[in-house]
Structures are given as structure tokens and as C-alpha cells.
Amino acid sequence: MGCSLAFYLARQGRRVIVVDRGRIGQGATAACAGGIRAQFSTEVNIRMGMEAKRVLSRFVEETGQNADFRQVGYLFLLTTDEERRRFHDAVELQRRMGVEDVVELSPADARAIVPGLETGDLSGATFCPTDGIAGPNEVTYGFANGARARGAIFLEETPVTGFLKSGDAVCGVRTDWEEIRCPQTVICAGPWSARVGAMLGLSLPIQPSRRQIFMTDALRGFRPDSPMTIDFHTSFYFHPEGDGVLFGMSDPDIEPGEDTSVDWAFLYRITAVAQRRWPPLLEARVKTAWAGLYENTPDFQPLIGPLQPGAWIAAGFSGHGFMMAPVVGDWLAAWMAGGSPPADLSLFAPDRFGRGSLHPEANVV
After folding, report:
1. Which architecture characterizes domain 71-133+209-296 according to CATH?
2. What's the confidence (pLDDT) of residue 152?
3. On the chain, which terminus has fewer CB atoms closer than 10 Å, C or N?
């Protein structure tokens, strides 16, 4: 998110400094699954997904770097009648918004797309062939290198220790080595954003939550153009990665926190679900695993916009930050320069929780 914003601000001719406590791209982004989709339930998120696909499709022209964007599609598997009705309504909205290729499928249609699926208990499915997967490293460094080429400065291994204030306004940040004064500061700290916001005396409703990903060796018969497949009821998902399979599942029992160790016992819970939904996965050998962090909010929508005079935020994306970054960076840069957002971002207002004005995203994995 920070690298995207830096790119679009630098492209405006703004002087930009990115301050990272670690290395660029080595936070939550490095551990994400790389999905890009327009199959959301709220209008603004659908629009973001559509625009993100457009940006990534011409990423070389935009930044000079390939995004490794593979439009293999997103296949949602639905179990209950309520899920089918909810996704039917979402598909209708997506089509009205211009996602012309999204379709509702029968269980048999879903099995034809991904051989080996167990579909006897499914109520339906949805599929959008132009959704897909992009490379987290490729996209992050594409934006970062594009920003550097336009004069942006990146300070890595540089934790922020506090904010500079002039009256009620934020006028920069403090690190262990220097004070950086600037008229606008943006918190793009992902799962650690609440901790950064606390330095301003704010209690931001963003909680980090561990997610684990597993990778297999080559799986015979699994096509590299198979879609990102999500069993929505259980959140079990898988997609091709190299000649193997990348897969994972959320853990409803996990407590909020910053633990990114791998719990190998959780693998048995995933494979139990896979045995019922996609048995071919059990034929592959798991070769590696890692864990990263979601940055969840109560309504699974981000905080985007001004926090205090001179201070902004783009965080709390609840697992959708990578896919939304190509758009949010552009829109927020335009907002910061022009005084108003180029799209209606009121659903993401940072103060909405105090006002009780919530419009949750329903299609969350």
C-alpha cells in the first residue's frame, strides 16, 4: 500500500519519503496469496477490483515491471442456500457495475472447471475468468522502483518512534536517527497500523490475525491455468503456484496477535476439509509453509482518509490490501493533492465506527 501510494504521489511530482521499520515488501505482503478479484459485495470494492485488474494488465507500461498477473479466474464454491442467494445478489450487482464475464454455475459446471472437486453437497458456484493472481514481490517492487525513478526516497530498517506536532496538526515523524518534517503523513503499516496510530493517541480498530499458507511439490494433472478456488463455507482455498499447489484456510479459533510461526498441526485440519472437497490435494507432498497477518476491522472494510490535520491512513484491508493497493494508492494520491477523493470512499471513513455507519463487505475469506 505504501509503495503504491509513493508511486502515484511521486508521479504527481510530489517529494515522497517512505519510512519502513524493516525491508520494503517483507511485511504482510510477502506472505500473501496474491489474489486479485472483482467478486465483492459492495459497489466500491467491485469498482476497485475492476480497476486493479486494469492496472495490473498494463503494469509494464505503468511501472516498467511485469506484475506476473495471471488471469486464471476465481471460482467460489457455495454450500448453503443462503450463500447461493447472497452470491446471486452479488453477481447481479457486479454485472450492473460492468463485470460482464462473471457467471453463476451449477455444481457440475464447477467440477468441469476443476476436476476432482467433490460437489454433491454444493448449492452452486460463481466464476469470473478475468480474476486471478499476481506476484506480491513483482507488484511491490514495481511500485517501489517506479517511485524511486521519480525521486522518492525509501528509508528501510528505520522504525518510526513518534510523530511531530505543530498545535493540533501532524507535521512529520521522528525516528531514532532524525526528524522528518512534512505537511502530510500517511499510515500504511498494515497489521501494525493500530500500534502506529497509538503514537498519535488514537485507538484504531485494526487487529492483526495470523493466516497460514502451505505449498506442495508438483501435482500431476493439476493445470497451471486452474483458477483460484475457494470453498466459501470453510474458507479452504487453493490455486496453482509453479508446478504445485498453494493452499490455506482461515482458523476461526485463532486469537488476534502478531504471531507468524507455522502451526503444523493446523495442516491436519485443512487436509480433512480438502479430503471432503478436493481429494487430489492429498496426493501431493507439502514442501513448505509460512504464516502472515491479516489486518482485520470489525466490518472487514479498510480505513482510508484523514485522521487528524496532516495525518492520513490507508490500512485495515482485512486480507484485501494487496489486490486493492494499485487503486487505493492512485485514488488517495489524487485526494491528497486535490482536496477531495476521485471516488466515493465514505464507506472507509476512519471515524465511521464511532458514528455507527457501517457497510460490511460480505465476500471475505
Report:
1. 2-Layer Sandwich (3.30)
2. 98
3. C
